[in-house]
């Protein structure tokens, strides 16, 4: 008899029912008031256009945008210029902010450069208000947008990333134009539904109310451009008072801090530091602008008169105000950049890397460099993966050293010459760490984060980047296999390291000595950063030494078997563990070789 099926929870029933009811209400409202439908459709098209525009520029990963970034951020003024011009080009300060967080998280730019880019992006976003005020509200953009949509759809279906990206950019611009046209039409007929002008609020109450309204609108739509477009359209149609529109523009800038905050949640500490600088910039700028809003409005009137604008050209005045208060933010924050570069790492310090001592007592290890921001671009994904693989390699060497019962002073610094000449003793039983437990505690979590990161990449890598990503994935697997081989070796080592037979003790001591030499060689190779030719020579020298050790070890085992110092069971245990050590060595060397591929790719 089958069990009775459990009834769904009331909340599960209410969700689709509530959504359906909401959709019905919206449809009825739109049928009754077509102007509202046009307004909201315009907002939806505008937001969709922003999404296509961002996706289109992201499709150029590995192209001009990233190369320009790397070449234009060695000075603060260059970073400011890059942030301003790139935001003016892509018309999305959110995209530039996320790009900066991703590149800072990957270590491709400095914190000073990242701050300069984000500050410049705030100034660059003002160009959108000028374009809309000068062109968008005066021309029939639908006539321009529809051909762009046709070309965009044709190109977007191309399989090549660059052509597809170009098509997405054209689609984005076309949808932006259609959205602006629909919002203009919606606001033009909105007075037949209700008059927003009747809800104007004077004085500081109005400033606070409309600043809050602009902030909420930007938070909901995740686009200050959309909020400014609505503000400009409402101002042009007479639905919004000029002073209220100024406060709403300040609120739109303040709402963009949520984008930075969301990006910071998925970034590493370097990304969080940059997001904090962005939030501080917008908060301080907004608070000062709101506090002196009447003075700024007077200054705008004087500049508008000097520039020959009409006194009633409120949309142009709003664009001028938007530029002025962002310039004010730069004047306030630029002198604080050196202090921010010093303070932010103290407020948001990077997590300390695991030391070589008491590995079992340290917290569970996870990825240090992987974050959501880096998933958006193949260049940043390669860079953070390379950093994370180095972290995994260092942790793997620590676990292997613990599996071989190597001394704590060696684990703290595997590159020291003196450590190799010290006699290798057996640690007390209380200091012997379990390799299987260390694998689950420190290796598996990092590897799981790497696999998850690779499976959720949000970009279209170029063929050579795909090859490099595959090599890094194989390198991660090689490191895991190296640790697993050491785990198997420790199974017998645990039994025989204190064996009553001198030949067994000496055999495992020699395996541990060879393991210490292996780990030291790998640590030095990573620390020295030799050229490809020097790396090959060094690797060949170690392989020759390892082959000599293997030959001598097997020859000694045969002699001990004939002399009766070991029996067949004990000899096979030593032979198996020799093979585990050689397997661990091969995997470590393969991972090290693969780690150099993304660096070579970046140089090319």
TrEMBL record:
Topology in membrane: Multi-pass membrane protein
Molecular function per GO: sodium:phosphate symporter activity
Keyword Cell membrane carried by entry: yes
UniProt keyword terms in alphabetical order: Cell membrane, Membrane, Transmembrane, Transmembrane helix
Gene Ontology, cellular component aspect: plasma membrane
Main location: membrane
Residues in coiled coil: none
Superkingdom of source: Bacteria
Keyword Transmembrane included in the entry's annotation: yes
GO biological process: sodium-dependent phosphate transport
Cellular localisation: Cell membrane
Residue ranges of the TM segments: 12-30, 36-53, 95-123, 129-155, 207-233, 245-267, 279-300, 320-341
Xref: InterPro entries: Na/Pi_transpt (IPR003841)
Name of the protein described by the UniProt record: Sodium:phosphate symporter
The species this protein was found in: Halopseudomonas pachastrellae
